[in-house]
Amino acid sequence: MATAPAPISELVRATSVRQVRLVCGVILFAYVVSHFLNHALGNISVDAMEIGVYYHTLFWQFLPVAIVFYTAALTHMGLGIYALYQRRQFRWGTVEPLQLVLGLSIPGLVMAHVIGVRLGQTLYGHQKLYPQELYLFFVASNRIWAMTILLLIAWVHGCIGIYFWLRLKPFFTRAAPYLLAAAVLIPTLAMLGVYQGGRSVQVDADDGEWRTHNLSRRQVGTAAEAATLDRITGGLTAGYLGLLALALLARGVRALRERRGGMIALSYGNGKTVRVPKGLSVLEASLRHNVPHASVCGGRARCSTCRIRVIGDHGALPEPSQREAFVLTRVGSSDPSIRLACQLRPTSDLSFFQLFTAHTLSASAQASTPARIGQERYLVSLFVDMRGSTQLAEKRLPFDTVFIVNRFLGAVSQAVIENGGQPNQFVGDGMLALFGLSADPQEACRQALKAAAGIARQIDELNELLGHDLRQPIRFGIGIHGGEVIIGDIGYRDHIVFTALGDAVNVAARLQDMTKTLACEAIVSEEVRRTAGLADDALPQQEVAIRGRDEPMAVRVVADARQLSALVDRGKRVAA
Fold first, then answer.
1. Residue 407: its pLDDT value, please?
2. Domain with CATH 3.10.20.30 in the chain
3. Spans of the chain, pLDDT less than 50
4. Level-2 CATH architecture, domain 263-354
5. Would you say 454 and 418 are in contact if contact means Cβ atoms under 8 Å apart?
6. Which residues contact 353 (CB under 8 A, 6 or more apart)?
7. Residue 230: C-alpha distances to residues 119, 137, 526 (Å)
């Protein structure tokens, strides 16, 4: 029982402010999409809008959903104000500052609508639905342009956030045209629906019976009640603007304190030195002075590509934050001189060098070709290694050895390709193959297992073909593991290759090494077994110690890799 809280504490350490803001933003964007689709019903009739809003409010005003929604709204607004204060560098690009400005403008613009509808209902029992709201916007006042601007700002802000969230996902390239179509069509239909509904209400408003039925005191309230709601709106708007002013004032005070606190020198280890105020992160300093600095995630502490190694004494550096410590632990870095540039805010002169140079295109690549950097996704890694190649080389001519190794790698590659994988790296007589570049995790795990069976069959054929020339048949070891990795181009100039980096790749290599001591042909992680849908008793389980991991890892030992194909087919039938 004592170890139960560990996963919770790890989850807290893994969660950043940006992730909380993302979750809240997704909830709010779901509400916006629902509301826009309701507006689009105005292209049919106002009655259709009223039917739609009944189901809309039935869901969003359901108490548990309402609590989550309003909590997300207040949290998102608070984190937006905090981002205004916390952000020191606005040169990441033009889109992110635009998103921040649009997001901060939404509460002020939407305040009157929220107070008039929700608080009016709570305090006075008002029942303002589409006929009443459209009347107020189109007939009683000329606020339709203010509402249109609010709709556009909310939609653009949400779309930018969704884009930054999904752009590194594996399916984004395929989904982008459909997402763009939705991003254009939904607000267009919504605004057309509001316009058509407003025109219909303008015509109906000339009918005295319609006014009696739709503009009663119970529905729109009295002038005194409206004045009270206006005063509340004005007070809350002033309070919100005061919070923004307070955040800007705090920024100014911080900047003044930093200037008075003096400047510090950052030396990059290559002769480049810049002077910045205390409090800037190393990555922000690099961006401010146009120094190339690798950062796949854009300074969000979601990767470790901005890592630096501090030269000299690192005892005076600020302690790593929980998020920084979590990322460094994930990449197996226990050296206190290695820090994340996006999180480290030095208070004194600092010398360091970057562990990863900023990405550049190869000399032969066209400048218009985008570099593939930093896509985070779930992949299955398969490591395979040829056994006994050293003894093979001792008793053969070098060219004969190369011939046999090439035949081995060719047989392995064929099995990988036939089962939907991609041969990725060739290291001596071993190979890394990746599965899941164009498949979901379950299918990727099944492909990797069937590829392992295919490798065994291909090596059987190769042994038969070369039997007259081999004193011993070729043997092999396979390690398979799946998990989140970063895929992209790495290398230098003309030597850039596409590959995967991450813990899952390293574990697959470790499992392949263990096939020697466990005297088996393949070792499959429990993660892959479970995701592929194989029965729990399909393969013998064993716990092994993985170098770099504190806890033992559950794996499945495969004495004969040929059986994996039948096990995968059996798992598919059971799932069906």
1. 87
2. 263-354
3. 1-6, 11, 92, 359-373
4. Roll (3.10)
5. yes
6. 268, 269, 270, 308, 309, 311
7. 11, 15, 61
Listed in order, the ranges of the chain carrying CATH 3.30.70.1230 are: 375-575
Helix, strand, coil percentages (3-state) for the chain, rounded to 5, are: 55, 15, 30
Q: Residue 208, CB half-sphere, CA atoms under 13 Å: how many? A: 0
Type of residue found at 475? R
Distance of CA 544 to the CA centre of its chain: 31
Residues 6+ apart with CB under 8 A from 344: 281, 282, 308, 317, 318, 320, 324
- Specify whether the CB–CB gap between 110 and 140 falls below 8 A: no
Residue 342 structure tokens: 């996006």
User: What pTM value is reported for the model?
Assistant: 0.59
Rounded (10°) CA dihedral 251, 254, 258, 259: 60
Q: Dump pLDDT digits (tens) for 408-437.
A: 899 999 999 999 999 988 877 889 999 998
Q: What local confidence, expressed as pLDDT, does residue 502 receive? A: 79
* pLDDT score of 313: 76
CATH topology of domain 375-575: Alpha-Beta Plaits (3.30.70)
- Residue from 78, 70, 71, 164 nearest 119 by CA: 70
Return the structure tokens found at 329. Answer: 């632990």
What is each CA distance from 295 to 299, 342, 493, in whole angstroms?
6, 8, 19
* Alpha helices in 354-488, H assignment, sequence order: 389-394, 398-418, 441-465
Q: Which burial class, exposed, middle or buried, applies to 252 when counting CB atoms under 10 A from its CB (0-12, 13-18, 19+)?
A: exposed
> What pLDDT, on the 0 to 100 scale, is given for residue 93?
53
